[in-house]
Design a protein that fits this description.
The chain has 325 residues and is α/β, with parallel strands linked by helices. It is built from 7 helices and 10 strands.
């Protein structure tokens, strides 16, 4: 019996699929990176268990309890010889003026900080960060929150910004950054948090979700109520959804990308649960485009940028739509 020449059909047919998978994996390892890559988190740093507060605890009581936890975590890190983490925690204390709705100093850590007066704010922005955001890199997230709050205050004093490091972000180079598993877990936390936040802010407050990089995957999976008016996706690797209409929200969905953001070169495909599919700035996705200027992946919330101006107007409800090119 004569054997047919050449490799088996199955092997030949598998080669394009293998190349696609390798391209996808290589691209998406970069896609959810929040640059620049910084020092790894410190999983073994000692810290107290988070404060447990009654549901009816006031905001001042919450802020005070979490400041106490933060100070204790800094002391414990210092005593353990983890001076780098201790210094970062001392910076987060902001000389005793920081306002945290949540804080957990264990492992990579979690922190939810308020900038502004939440109780009087009728415009509230929630920043959801991407990969490799931990207590060790927190100041990067906070710098963007401060810049946004300053812009909002200049036009609308009754505003507040919440920096939401409320989930275990995936590592920059890891299998978790390629799938939506961390995002699904985060969305289960973010949805109820938004409900509580709406009740803590001024009556009829308008909430906006501003979602960067892998954080856009989180927001796209978060079921929101009527208190969330807008969701802005920027520096996004995709959401896992084929269109904005598929997202579990009634909010307006916006998308923007800076001209120098390398994430635009990442393949927007989805294969076997790996990858995030349609590019949110693609007109086919159906999001409202916003002007993001010429900036790069880490520039969206930098002072003086077109992207910061656009995001400010989205939060205030005054953003004009930019036609798709």
């Amino acid at each position: 019996m004569t054997r047919a020449a050449g490799p088996p059909v199955g092997r030949r047919a598998g080669r394009p699929r293998g190349r696609l998978r390798r391209t996808l994996l290589a691209g998406l390892v970069a896609a959810a990176v929040v640059l620049p890559v910084s020092a790894a988190a410190s999983p073994d740093v000692p810290a107290p268990a988070p404060a447990v507060l009654a549901e009816h605890a006031t905001l001042p009581d919450r802020y005070a309890a979490h400041r106490a936890d933060l100070a204790e975590a800094a002391r414990m890190a210092q005593d353990a010889g983890r001076t780098g983490r201790a210094a970062k925690l001392h910076a987060m204390e902001a000389d005793g003026t920081a306002r945290f709705l949540a804080f957990d100093g264990r492992g990579k850590g979690r922190a939810v900080e308020v900038l502004g007066d939440l109780e009087t704010a009728d415009r509230v922005a929630v920043l959801v960060p991407g990969s490799d955001t931990t207590l060790d890199t927190y100041q990067r997230l906070r710098a963007g929150a401060v810049a946004l709050q300053q812009r909002l205050q200049a036009e609308h004093p009754r505003s507040a910004v919440v920096a939401w490091l409320g989930y275990d972000t995936p590592g920059t180079v890891s299998a978790t950054v390629l799938t939506a598993d961390r995002a699904d877990a985060a969305a289960a936390e973010l949805g109820p948090f938004l409900d509580r936040l709406g009740r803590a802010a001024a009556p009829d407050a308008r909430l906006s979700l501003l979602c960067h990089s892998y954080g856009s995957v989180v927001c796209a999976r978060t079921r929101t109520g009527p208190e969330v008016a807008d969701i802005a996706l920027f520096g996004s690797p995709g959401t896992g959804a084929g269109s904005a209409a598929e997202l579990p929200t009634g909010a307006r969905v916006w998308a923007g990308r800076g001209g120098a953001d390398w994430i635009g070169h990442v393949p927007h495909v989805r294969l076997g649960g790996v990858g995030f599919g349609t590019d949110p700035v693609d007109p086919a996705f159906g999001a409202r485009p916003f002007a993001a200027g010429p900036g790069g992946h880490s520039d969206y919330l930098k002072p003086g940028t077109a992207s910061l101006d656009s995001l400010t107007r989205i939060v205030l409800g005054t953003a004009p739509e930019v036609p798709h090119a």
